[in-house]
Structures are given as structure tokens and as C-alpha cells.
């Protein structure tokens, strides 16, 4: 709900701070006191047009700040978070109007755009009165309001889900058909790539093994010379190292029989002899395997060159090339079955269109029934609001093609006077009539999607016993939502949960608007002024007390 409003240098308002409460907030005051300027300020918060004419004479800029309490409004908090605005249940919005009509917008302390301000705040406040930025004038809202009243919102959501699925399938089919020629070219390319990789018969780790073989073959003479020479020196030639070592071991072993301290030395030498003997035999076998094979070397070079060409095309390693082939084969499988895919999509579209037709028929029937009940209820409520001859109807415009909301659009039609055909609200309803229409609608469908409703002189043209009925209806709406109402009727003001008096004062030669919270006898005095005008008598005061007491019951 709207908790606080601070207005600075706007029209005749110098600086004004107002705190609002839950329930019904009534604003009263003499004509020209500045009540409409407060509505203008709220309209700026809603993203309305900012004009330099709004800036108080002599001031550099005008500003409006609003603090909203969003406690328990999970959907709104989630929407704000989606827009990148974090708040802990409290949201500060500020709009500054500079000369030339340029505006600066701050949401939650951060700089923002007017369009974002409008998008967010239209979910926080609705104004019903003399302003043109209100939901009843937006034809696209009429069907949504009717669906809410008719209980058709779950059916509408189901229809919208099926519609999105159908549209997605149609787009997929269009893309498939538009891309058939490209698909044929793609099919040829992918087939060539898959065959080229398959014919190479690559194996993971193959490139590394070939590189090692190439290195050995390229240096075969050096490897053979080194291994054979080492074997000859160790074991195979004359005066070998192992022969000399055997003599040394025998000498040390003989000495060890004299001094046992040399026994470990003998064992160590014998172990070394065994290791050298194994190494020499390994060298002999290695030398026997090493050969110079130019043909094999050329074969390996060709194979590595072929792998290198594939790597330039398809991946940095054999593993990446094989993964690319897997993806190509998968796409080939899809492209090769275009006809099957097309048939499947066409069958799915036909099924979804049949489901849309069935759901759409139910939705239309529900709406027609709801429109009849809404007509009866609205005309009854409007009659109670001193519009006894008002006609309220819903016009439907059918469509052969489905939209996300169904097969029809809806528009509310209204005629306030007998003998006049009902016409669209935007063309015929005045501000006061529009306020009463919304008040009547709220009696029939008291939803609480928007936390704060503002009714600007909803009681225009109403008098007598009907006045108290308007107050009762506003009070009823205020049980679910915060209501701000500007009124000139004491019978309506008597129902206030919080009564605010707007008055114009002159100080230091300048006019300024102020707001006073009325309680007790101050409230009685204001209701009495509304009853009798400038001359307030004790009898008028007593009448005012009775009105307030009656409203509390």
C-alpha cells in the first residue's frame, strides 16, 4: 500500500508530507484547496507526463516521493526482483520534474526510466477519476476483468499454455520447411564429413603411438649402435665389464672369508652384477629388434599427415575429431528424417488446434455467461449509485484465429442516460462516471491485485440517501485494499478510517497547500463544514457527530 507521499514545489504545494493508513483514507477540502494536485503528484509516480508547468513558481524543479509497503505482496516483490530491484518489503520511488519537462526517476535508490516506473507502479496504484491513465479506459484490460469476474482465469491460463505450445510447433514447422533447401546442402556436407572421418578409421591414442614409432625409425642407426655397443662392453666382447666385475667379486668374497665385514660388500657387488647382466641382455634384445625400415617410416609419415589434415578440419585431437563425427551423425539422423519430423509436427499442431477449439468454446461460453451476470450486477450497483437508467454491456469481437487469450476480444459498453445506445467507455464515460463504474465493479469482483485504489470525486452528481451508500461501498472495498477517496459529501467522509483535510493557506504573500490529519472534534468540525458551508452551528455539529457514529456501526 501507499504509506507516505512527499511533494515538493509542485504547483501551489511548497512542501507537503502525507502519511496514509490501511483502509479508507478520505481527503476533503474546499474547491481549489489542492486535492487534485495530490492526485497529479500520484499520477507522476505512475509514470504520467511531467510538464514544466507543474513546477512551483520560483523553484528549479518539482519532485514527488512515495514509499510503498509491500509486506505480504510476494508476487509484486518477485516482479521487482525480476526487474533487478531488490527491496525488503519497502519501496521508495522518486520522480523529479525539471524545466523543459525533463524527468529523472529513482526506484529503490537507483536511477531508472519512466517506462520502468510506469510498468512497476501500475501494479501498485490505480486511479479512478478525472485522469486518463486508468485501467477501465484500456480496452485490453476489459477481457481480463471479465475473466476475473467470471472465474475463467484458470481456463484462460490453460488456453494460453496450449496456444504457446501450438505457436512453438508452428514456428518449428515453418523453420523446417523454409530450411529444406539448406538442409539438403547441409546433408551433403555432413555426409561427406562423416564418411571422410569414418574412412580414416581413427583410434584414440593412435597419433601418439605413431609419433613414437616415427622417432625410433628416424634414429634407428643411432639406437642400434648405442644398444649393441653397450651390450658388447658389458657382456658380449673381450675384456668385458661383467668379466672384470666377476673377478673383483671373487677377490672380495675370498677376503670376506677372512673378515666377515666384507660379506655385505660381496652381496652388494653380486646384486650389481645381476642387474648389469639383466641390463646387458635387455640391450642385446633391443639391438636385435631395431631395424632401419624406410618404407615403414614413409607409411607412418603419410598416416600422421592424414591425421593432421583431419585435425585442421574437425578438431585439435583424434578424440575431438571422433566427438565431432558423433555430432555430425546425430544431425544426419535428424536431417535424414525430415519427412518424419514434418509429419510429427503437423500431427501435433492438429492436435493442439483441436484442444484450443475445445478450450476456446468453453472459455467463450464462460465469458458469455459472465457478461450476462456482470450486466445485471453492474446495472443494479449503478442504480444504487444514482445512475438508475445506466446500461452496461459487454461487446465481443470474434476471431477465426486463436490468440493467447482465446477467440474473442471484449469491450465494455456504457450508456448513462435512457434512450442512448451504449458506447465504449473511453468515448462516453466522464471521470465521475468512470469512478462509479469501477466502484460498482469492485463490489461485484473485489480482487486485491493492486494494493491501492484512488477514487477521485466518485460521488459527483450524487446526493441524498445515495451518498451514504457510496460511503458504504468504498468502505467495503477498503476491507481488501487501501482506498484513497476525494469527496465533497459529508455522508461519504463519515466512513473514513483516516480523514485528511486539504486546505490552502497564504504565508509571506504566497499561497501553499497543506494537509491536516483530523481526529475527534476536528473531524466533526470538517464534516459539519461540508454539511452547511461556512456557517457551522451547534445543530450542524450534532448532525456531523450522528453521521460519523452511524458510519461506525
From TrEMBL:
<protein>
    <recommendedName>
        <fullName>DNA repair protein RecN</fullName>
    </recommendedName>
</protein>
<dbReference type="InterPro" id="IPR003395">
    <property type="entry name" value="RecF/RecN/SMC_N"/>
</dbReference>
<keyword id="KW-0175">Coiled coil</keyword>
<dbReference type="InterPro" id="IPR004604">
    <property type="entry name" value="DNA_recomb/repair_RecN"/>
</dbReference>
<keyword id="KW-0547">Nucleotide-binding</keyword>
<comment type="similarity">
    <text>Belongs to the RecN family.</text>
</comment>
<feature type="domain" description="RecF/RecN/SMC N-terminal">
    <location>
        <begin position="2"/>
        <end position="504"/>
    </location>
</feature>
<keyword id="KW-0067">ATP-binding</keyword>
<feature type="coiled-coil region">
    <location>
        <begin position="335"/>
        <end position="388"/>
    </location>
</feature>
<dbReference type="Pfam" id="PF02463">
    <property type="entry name" value="SMC_N"/>
</dbReference>
<comment type="function">
    <text>May be involved in recombinational repair of damaged DNA.</text>
</comment>
<keyword id="KW-0227">DNA damage</keyword>
<keyword id="KW-0234">DNA repair</keyword>
Amino acid at each position: 500500500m501507499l504509506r507516505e507521499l512527499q511533494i515538493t514545489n509542485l504547483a501551489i504545494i511548497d512542501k507537503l508530507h502525507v502519511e496514509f493508513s490501511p483502509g479508507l483514507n478520505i481527503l476533503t477540502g474546499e474547491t481549489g484547496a489542492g486535492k487534485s494536485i495530490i492526485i497529479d503528484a500520484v499520477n507522476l509516480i505512475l509514470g504520467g507526463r511531467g510538464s514544466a508547468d507543474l513546477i512551483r513558481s520560483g523553484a528549479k524543479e518539482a519532485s514527488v516521493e512515495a514509499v510503498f509497503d509491500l509486506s505480504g505482496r510476494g508476487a509484486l516483490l518477485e516482479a521487482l526482483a525480476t526487474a533487478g530491484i531488490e527491496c525488503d518489503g519497502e519501496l521508495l520511488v522518486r520522480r523529479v520534474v525539471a524545466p523543459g519537462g525533463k524527468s529523472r526517476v529513482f526506484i529503490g535508490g537507483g536511477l531508472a526510466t519512466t517506462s520502468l516506473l510506469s510498468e512497476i507502479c501500475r501494479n501498485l496504484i490505480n486511479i479512478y477519476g478525472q485522469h486518463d491513465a486508468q485501467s477501465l479506459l484500456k480496452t485490453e484490460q476489459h477481457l481480463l476483468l471479465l475473466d476475473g469476474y467470471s472465474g475463467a482465469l484458470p481456463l484462460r491460463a490453460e488456453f494460453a499454455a496450449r496456444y504457446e505450445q501450438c505457436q512453438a510447433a508452428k514456428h518449428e514447422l515453418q523453420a523446417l520447411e523454409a530450411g529444406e533447401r539448406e538442409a539438403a546442402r547441409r546433408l551433403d556436407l555432413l555426409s561427406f564429413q562423416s564418411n571422410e572421418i569414418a574412412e580414416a578409421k581413427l583410434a584414440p591414442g593412435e597419433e601418439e603411438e605413431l609419433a613414437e614409432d616415427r622417432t625410433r625409425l628416424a634414429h634407428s642407426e643411432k639406437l642400434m649402435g648405442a644398444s649393441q655397443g653397450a651390450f658388447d662392453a658389458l657382456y658380449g666382447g673381450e675384456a668385458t665389464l661383467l668379466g672384470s666385475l666377476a673377478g673383483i667379486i671373487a677377490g672380495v668374497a675370498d677376503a670376506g672369508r677372512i673378515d666377515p665385514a666384507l660379506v655385505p660388500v660381496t652381496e652388494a657387488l653380486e646384486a650389481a652384477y645381476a642387474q648389469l647382466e639383466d641390463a646387458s641382455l635387455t640391450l642385446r634384445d633391443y639391438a636385435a629388434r631395431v631395424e632401419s625400415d624406410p618404407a615403414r617410416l614413409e607409411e607412418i609419415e603419410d598416416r600422421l599427415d592424414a591425421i593432421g589434415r583431419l585435425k585442421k578440419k574437425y578438431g585439435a585431437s583424434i578424440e575431438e575429431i571422433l566427438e565431432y563425427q558423433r555430432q555430425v551423425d546425430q544431425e544426419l539422423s535428424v536431417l535424414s528424417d525430415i519427412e518424419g519430423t514434418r509429419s510429427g509436427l503437423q500431427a501435433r499442431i492438429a492436435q493442439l488446434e483441436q484442444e484450443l477449439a475445445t478450450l476456446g468454446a468453453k472459455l467463450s461460453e464462460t465469458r458469455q455467461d459472465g457478461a450476462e451476470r456482470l450486466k445485471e450486477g453492474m446495472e443494479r450497483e449503478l442504480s444504487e449509485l444514482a445512475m438508475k437508467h445506466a446500461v452496461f454491456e459487454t461487446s465481443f469481437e470474434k476471431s477465426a484465429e486463436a490468440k493467447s487469450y482465446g477467440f474473442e476480444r471484449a469491450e465494455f459498453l456504457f450508456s448513462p442516460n435512457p434512450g442512448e445506445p451504449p458506447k465504449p467507455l473511453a468515448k462516453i464515460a466522464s471521470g465521475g462516471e468512470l469512478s462509479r463504474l469501477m466502484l460498482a465493479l469492485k463490489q461485484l469482483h473485489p480482487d486485491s491485485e493492486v494494493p491501492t485504489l484512488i477514487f477521485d470525486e466518485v460521488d459527483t452528481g450524487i446526493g441524498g440517501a445515495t451518498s451514504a451508500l457510496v460511503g458504504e461501498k468504498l468502505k467495503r472495498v477498503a476491507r481488501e485494499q487501501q482506498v484513497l477517496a476525494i469527496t465533497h459529501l459529508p455522508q461519504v467522509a463519515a466512513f473514513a478510517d483516516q480523514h485528511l483535510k486539504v486546505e490552502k493557506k497564504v504565508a509571506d504573500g504566497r499561497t501553499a497547500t497543506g494537509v491536516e490529519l483530523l481526529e475527534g472534534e476536528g473531524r466533526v468540525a470538517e464534516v459539519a463544514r461540508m454539511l452547511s458551508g461556512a456557517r457551522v452551528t451547534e445543530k450542524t455539529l450534532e448532525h456531523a457527530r450522528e453521521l460519523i457514529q452511524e458510519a461506525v456501526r
